Amino acid sequence: MEHGTENQSRLKVKFPAEFILFDFEYTAWEKSDERNWSGPGEHREIIQIGAIKVSATTLSETDSLLDYVRPEKNPELSDFIIQLTGITQTDIESRGIPFSQALKKLEEFIGGLRAYCWGRDIEVLKENCELLQVSTSLSSDHLTNLRPLMAPIFLNLGVDIDAYSSGTLIQAFEDEPLLKAHDALNDMRNLLSAIRYVREYVTIA
User: Fold this and answer.
1) Separation CA 60–CA 82 (nearest Å)
2) CA 195 to CA 116: how far, in whole Å?
3) DSSP codes of every residue in 37-105
4) Which of 102, 156, 180, 194 could form a disulfide with 4 if both were Cys (CB 3.0 to 4.6 A apart)?
């Protein structure tokens, strides 16, 4: 892989000294992504929340959060999402907690820190709050989509991020991720591993 140098000084992402990476897994069906979840009764209900706390100085994980969430509108998981994520109906029924409770735990975990996702998780969070009539203290003051911020960096390195998810981006640098993708916590740990490969482009705000 060729590392580009043109405008490298402009390709910097500033992180606070400590920040959060968070991710959601949510209900889906065969081709529901292509339909934009427009099928009858289809909702992107969160079924798993994963988050890690990161030291920007060392790009190391200092704490983690993982919760399973019971979907209310579609309590039975589809075969598609079970196969994609490895989350089973037993996981949801035995380990799942209500969305309101899981959201509260995420809010407490984030605290006053800046939290980053990779893609549409902020949109999905808003949808779940509206769908289930749950309010949240999380806002644009806390949450940022990291994908558009880092896209120019990976493009400069010859990496097409459209070919990867947050959990598989590490494949641009290694043969396979050490952790299985499409698990909310694993995805953020894999994403952090990918960020370490471009640490020369990371600064502390």
Assistant:
1) 30
2) 12
3) S-STT----EEEEEEEEEETTTTEEEEEEEEEE--SS--SPPHHHHHHH---HHHHHHHEE-HHHHHHH
4) 156
Which among 65, 148, 177 is positioned nearest to 111, based on CA atoms?
A: 65
Distance (Å, whole) CA 38 – CA 57: 43
Instruction: Give 161's DSSP letter.
Output: G
State the pLDDT at residue 174: 84
Residue found by looking up tokens 């992180």 in the block: 15
Residues, the chain, total?
205
d(CA 62, CA 23): 17
Give domain 8-204's CATH superfamily: Ribonuclease H-like superfamily/Ribonuclease H (3.30.420.10)
Contacts of 18 (CB under 8 A, 6+ apart): 53, 54, 55, 56, 62, 113
d(CA 167, CA 193): 10
pLDDT, tens digit, 9 for 90 and up, residues 98-121: 999 999 999 999 999 999 999 999
Q: pTM for the complete prediction?
A: 0.93
Mean pLDDT (the chain, rounded): 93
d(CA 33, CA 177): 24
Indicate the domain borders of the chain: 8-204
* Cα–Cα separations (whole angstroms), residue 164 to 26, 30, 44, 67, 84: 18, 19, 20, 24, 15
